[in-house]
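Here comes an entry:

___
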Amino acid sequence: MYALILPASTPFVLLATVMGLSWWEDRILPTPAAPVDIPAEAPFVPAAPVQLTGLVRVDTPLTPEVARR
């Protein structure tokens, strides 16, 4: 009988756990008194993309010359 009850109740136990943690996070954990200002950082500017000399075929064996392309 327990072999049928335990697998059937597992999703409900997990749901109750998640709901309990959500309630705990909303009600119990302290909230910051004032919002913390995050310092603005310089935007990330990516380097110029590498120009490919040519595409390598899929069936080409990987050799040092092919790896440098």
Notes: Residues 2-27 form the longest helix (26 residues). The chain has a mean pLDDT of 79. Residues 11 and 17 are 10 Å apart (CA to CA).
